[in-house]
Design goal:
15 strands; alpha+beta; 41% strand; Double-stranded beta-helix; 2 domains; globular
């Protein structure tokens, strides 16, 4: 039997979320700093820029991790590579190039504790079954999930969405039953959730971090005419049609500090501006 002390009873490590076998801890202060960076650490803490860690409690179950995510384990826990052979490895390697995910996702199973590496990103725990046929993830969002969750990599069915959408050529899709652990640059309380029922959503830029697999994703001109798109300065927009859900960040990361995205330069929007409209018109033709 193993007892873990100075974790659940540590005043500096606050448990902020729990779902399934996962517990999310947040460091209230970064105590492991030297005098040279103490002021930086203070202001990081004030701006909610804190270290977070995920603890997986295994009791005969198993979890899948992004490669290199494990920090330590305690108990009778074994690990398999998640790769079935050379053919499987090369197939996953090709898919990982387009998604930003690791080629192999090791599977840990047994009884005990499994602690993941600390991160300054925000941790989101999602019940995959609530997304119906599956949830499409933005690149680099995946951290861990129950081994019961199925994963696949899908390619863009529309050429313009693949090249101009800003969401990558391929995306990881999770489906089935189980919990997924996601790493986000935006906290869950700031994410806007859009629920569609046979309708559509248009987003200027790649601010959607996750969306239902059932939605049809394309890239279209912001206006029906090329001239209208050029005059508006919006260029191209990402369009999601059908029935499902979207998790959207309020702004693209860094947009508020980017002067090139100001109203004085409308042609340099995140979705491609005038040049993007011209390219998309050629593709539509």
């Amino acid at each position: 039997m193993i007892k873990v002390r100075n974790l659940h009873n540590n005043e500096n490590m606050k448990k902020i979320a729990e779902k399934g076998c996962y517990e999310v801890f947040e460091f209230q202060k970064d105590l492991s700093v030297n005098p040279g960076i103490a002021s930086v650490a203070y202001f990081m803490q004030e701006m909610n820029f804190r270290k977070r860690q995920v603890l997986c409690k295994l009791n005969g179950n198993s979890v899948k991790l992004q490669a290199g995510a494990m920090q330590w384990s305690a108990g009778k826990i074994s690990m398999t590579s998640g790769v079935a052979g050379a053919k499987d490895f090369f197939g996953k390697a090709l898919k990982s190039i387009g998604t930003g995910e690791s080629t192999a996702k090791p599977i840990y199973q047994g009884s005990g504790y499994l602690m993941l590496e600390p991160t300054y990103k925000y941790i989101i725990l999602e019940d995959v079954s609530e997304w119906g046929s599956g949830v499409v993830l933005d690149d680099g969002l995946f951290l861990a999930c129950d081994s019961s969750v199925k994963e696949e990599v899908i390619a863009r069915s529309n050429f313009s969405s693949a090249i101009l959408g800003g969401e990558g050529l391929f995306n990881l899709v999770l489906s089935g039953d189980g919990i997924a652990v996601l790493e986000s640059s935006v906290p869950r309380e700031e994410l806007i959730e859009l629920v569609l029922e046979n309708d559509e959503v248009r987003i200027d830029g790649n601010m959607a971090i996750a969306w239902s697999k059932s939605l049809n994703f394309t890239v279209e001109k912001s206006s029906k005419s090329l001239l209208g798109s050029m005059v508006s300065g919006e260029g191209l927009v990402n369009v999601y049609k059908g029935t499902g859900r979207i998790l959207m960040a309020p702004v693209a990361f860094g947009t508020l500090m980017n002067t090139s995205n100001s109203s004085q330069e409308p042609g340099k929007t995140s979705s491609g501006g005038i040049l993007g409209s011209v390219i998309n018109s050629v593709l539509d033709a």
